[in-house]
Amino acid sequence: MTGRTILLGLLLFIAAQPGCKKNDDLPPEKQILGVWVSTSTEDILDFTDEDTFYKSNKNIHEPYRYQLEKDSIEIQYVGESFIAVPPTKHKYTISGSRLTIDFASKHCFGFPTELLTFVKR
Predict the structure, then answer these.
(1) Are the C-beta atoms of 54 and 46 separated by less than 8 Å?
(2) Which of 3, 33, 57, 103 is most buried, taking the most CB atoms under 10 A from its CB?
(3) Using one digit for the tens of pLDDT, what is the confidence trace for 34-85?
(4) What is d(CA 11, CA 51) in angstroms, rounded to the nearest whole number?
(5) What are the beta bridge partners of residue 36?
(6) Is there a contact between 89 and 74 (Cβ–Cβ < 8 Å)?
(7) How far apart are CA 18 and CA 28, in angstroms?
(8) In 3-state terms, what secondary structure has residue 6?
C-alpha cells in the first residue's frame, strides 16, 4: 500500500463516522435538561428531570414543576412558601444553548414579568 492509498482510506473512514448529535436534534424534553443561567437576573434554573426544575440565586433554592407543550411551558411553584400557587403557561423557545421564556404576558410566582433569556452552562 502506498501512503496515498492509506491516506485516502483514512479520509473515507473519518467521513463515514457518525457525528456528534447536536442539542437541536434532541426532543425538547431532553434539550431543556441541565443548568441554565439568566442573562439579565441572578437566577439559575436547574432542570433535573422531565417534570421538575429548581430556581436558585443567592437568596433562594425553590422547586417548580413544569410541563412542555409544543411552544409553551406550564410552570407551577411547589415549594413551601405558598400552598396553592396555580400553574401558568408561557411561550418558550430553545435554540442551541439559549432558552427564552416569556413571562411578560402573564405573572408566574417567583419570576419578574418580562421576557427572560437563559444560557446553558
Answers:
(1) yes
(2) 103
(3) 999 999 999 999 999 999 999 999 999 999 999 999 999 999 999 987 678 9
(4) 44
(5) 45, 120
(6) yes
(7) 22
(8) helix
List the domains of the chain with CATH numbers: 23-120 (2.40.128)
Which pLDDT belongs to residue 1? Answer: 56
Distance of CA 12 to the CA centre of its chain: 36
User: Hey, what's the cell of 41?
Assistant: 437576573
Question: Which among 96, 58, 93, 90 has a CA at the least distance from the CA of 74?
Answer: 90
The Cα–Cα gap between 47 and 33 comes to 5
Alpha-helical segments (H) within the chain: 3-16, 28-31
CA distance 43 to 59: 10
- Single pTM value for the model: 0.78
In 1-121, beta strands by DSSP E:
34-38, 44-47, 52-56, 61-69, 72-77, 88-95, 98-102, 115-120
Burial string for 16-44 (b: 16+ CB within 10 Å, else e) reads eeeeeeeeeeeebeebbbbbbbbeeeebb
